[in-house]
């Protein structure tokens, strides 16, 4: 899951998915700590509704690279689920993978390629009529 989360080095998220992290009074369990990062996000999100889209990776938004992991270590993971990868785990395995991928882009690329290949080979659960959705949030009609 750690390596597949690296896909968040490209793409966008709606402000509604992370705006609760702007202050400790929000319902989000994790608050952004970098004030410069907060200011840039708030500027992007105040221009409209919570439907405004923001790049998941503000540093290299259209490049598939390991910047996602560098952002996490800096506290600049956009989504709560991303930044949660740095919550301490018993053995430190997850944190170790984040650090390894931040330091070695080639290791990330190789592991990502393998994980995507394995995921692509997964069969849908027995008896399920799995579908590839046109829009992730809506069941195809």
Automatic annotation (TrEMBL):
SUPFAM superfamilies per the UniProt record, alphabetical: Heme-dependent peroxidases
Keyword Calcium applies: yes
Pfam families listed in its UniProt record: peroxidase
Membrane spanning stretches: none
Superkingdom assignment: Eukaryota
Domain named Plant heme peroxidase family profile: residues: 1-140
Cofactors required: heme b; Ca(2+)
Similarity remark: Belongs to the peroxidase family.
The protein's name: Peroxidase 40
Originating species: Platanthera guangdongensis
């Amino acid at each position: 899951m750690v390596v597949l989360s690296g896909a968040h080095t490209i793409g966008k998220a709606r402000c509604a998915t992370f705006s609760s992290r702007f202050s400790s009074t929000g319902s989000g369990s994790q608050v952004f700590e970098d004030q410069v990062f907060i200011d840039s996000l708030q500027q992007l999100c105040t221009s409209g509704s919570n439907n405004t889209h923001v790049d998941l990776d503000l540093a290299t938004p259209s490049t598939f690279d390991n910047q996602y992991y560098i952002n996490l270590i800096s506290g600049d993971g956009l989504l709560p689920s991303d930044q949660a990868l740095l919550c301490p785990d018993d053995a430190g395995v997850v944190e170790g993978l984040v650090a390894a991928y931040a330091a070695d882009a080639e290791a990330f690329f190789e592991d990502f390629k393998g994980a995507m290949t394995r995921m692509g080979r997964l069969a849908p659960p027995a008896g399920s009529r799995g579908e590839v959705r046109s829009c992730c949030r809506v069941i195809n009609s």
